[in-house]
């Protein structure tokens, strides 16, 4: 089959990674772009070996942060997500503001930690309820599929992240290559924020949706994780896979007592994917990444 790829599932610790393993046929296109793409495809295969290396992953996240913050213009209201990748974007935003390159920029932090970080890096924060709109939002992701469906909530912050991301005119999702999956739920369960007083009936209803729910436990506290909003988090795995993310997102949110779940469909306007090409880090749009791994023509990097 022309352009066929094979995907190999790696397991590292508790996290399985899908990555394009081999591209069996050459890309179409001009000779020079052909060889460029072929060498890139080889390195995509190679970077998978580095995907679990924290230093390599950090370099990918920094490149994403830089690329994303390059889209901010003076006077904008910026939404800030949570997690290590979004934090690097906040750091980069602060750097440009302090250098005087981005005047009159204010930020809406999706949660407590993103507001603390913003202040730490010299980014002025405002309350979501005090702005009419958000121009651009940056957020990380635990998984993203090739249709820009997201899985979030690894940091139990997905409820307000979803609010901020969906208010923003441009929602830019920052994904290092390890985050791209063929099907949501491949490497992470679906986090569901639940009112503590409704936990038992919600657990029963999640089972009827085909899920295997587990209350998330705190690491350095006895008992469950309690979110910024005072709720519990249930991590739900779906052994039969998630065929229709947007339908599952709606069905979970229909359960009384559920505050919000970590599937986010139809919100991301742009997904930036970072890969390592030998010594270089390359950032490209998800569409370009998808073209490369499907062996179609027209893929090129954006940096
Ligand atoms: O959804 C989130 C937190 O609830 C994060 O965006 C997600 O967990 C990704 O985090 P990181 O950038 O550290 O990999």
Automatic annotation (TrEMBL):
It catalyses: aldehydo-D-ribose 5-phosphate = D-ribulose 5-phosphate. GO terms for molecular function: ribose-5-phosphate isomerase activity. One of its GO terms (cellular component) is cytoplasm. Pathway: Carbohydrate degradation; pentose phosphate pathway; D-ribose 5-phosphate from D-ribulose 5-phosphate (non-oxidative stage): step 1/1. InterPro entries: NagB/RpiA_transferase-like (IPR037171), Ribose5P_isomerase_typA_subgr (IPR020672), Ribose5P_isomerase_type_A (IPR004788). It is an enzyme of class 5 (isomerase). Pfam families: Rib_5-P_isom_A. It comes from the Eukaryota. GO terms for biological process: D-ribose metabolic process; pentose-phosphate shunt, non-oxidative branch. Its EC number is 5.3.1.6. HAMAP family: Rib_5P_isom_A (MF_00170). Belongs to the ribose 5-phosphate isomerase family. This is ribose-5-phosphate isomerase. The lineage of its organism: Eukaryota, Viridiplantae, Streptophyta, Embryophyta, Tracheophyta.
């Amino acid at each position: 089959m022309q352009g066929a790829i094979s995907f190999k599932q790696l397991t590292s610790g508790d996290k399985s990674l899908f990555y394009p393993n081999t591209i069996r046929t050459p890309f179409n296109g001009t000779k020079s772009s052909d060889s460029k793409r072929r060498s890139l495809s080889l390195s995509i295969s190679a970077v998978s070996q580095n995907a679990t290396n924290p230093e390599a992953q950090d370099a990918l996240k920094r490149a994403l942060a830089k690329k994303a913050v390059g889209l901010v213009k003076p006077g904008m209201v910026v939404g800030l997500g949570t997690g290590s990748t979004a934090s690097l974007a906040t750091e980069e935003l602060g750097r440009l503001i302090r250098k005087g390159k981005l005047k009159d920029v204010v930020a809406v932090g999706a949660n407590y930690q993103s507001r603390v970080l913003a202040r730490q890096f010299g980014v002025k924060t405002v309350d979501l309820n005090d702005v009419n709109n958000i121009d651009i939002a940056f957020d990380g992701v635990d998984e993203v599929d090739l249709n820009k469906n997201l899985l979030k909530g690894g940091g139990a912050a997905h409820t307000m992240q979803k609010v901020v991301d969906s208010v923003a005119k441009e929602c830019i999702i920052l994904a290092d290559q390890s985050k791209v999956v063929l099907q949501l739920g491949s490497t992470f369960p679906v986090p569901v924020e639940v009112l503590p007083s409704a936990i038992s009936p919600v657990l029963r209803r999640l089972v009827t949706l085909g899920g295997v729910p587990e209350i998330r436990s705190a690491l350095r506290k006895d008992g469950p994780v309690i979110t910024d909003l005072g709720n519990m988090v249930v991590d739900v795995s779906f052994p039969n896979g998630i065929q229709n993310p947007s339908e599952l997102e709606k069905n979970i949110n229909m359960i009384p007592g559920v505050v919000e779940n970590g599937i986010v469909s139809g919100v991301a306007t742009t997904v930036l994917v970072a890969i390592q090409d030998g010594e270089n880090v390359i950032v490209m749009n998800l569409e370009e990444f998808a073209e490369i791994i499907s062996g179609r023509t027209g893929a090129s990097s954006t940096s």
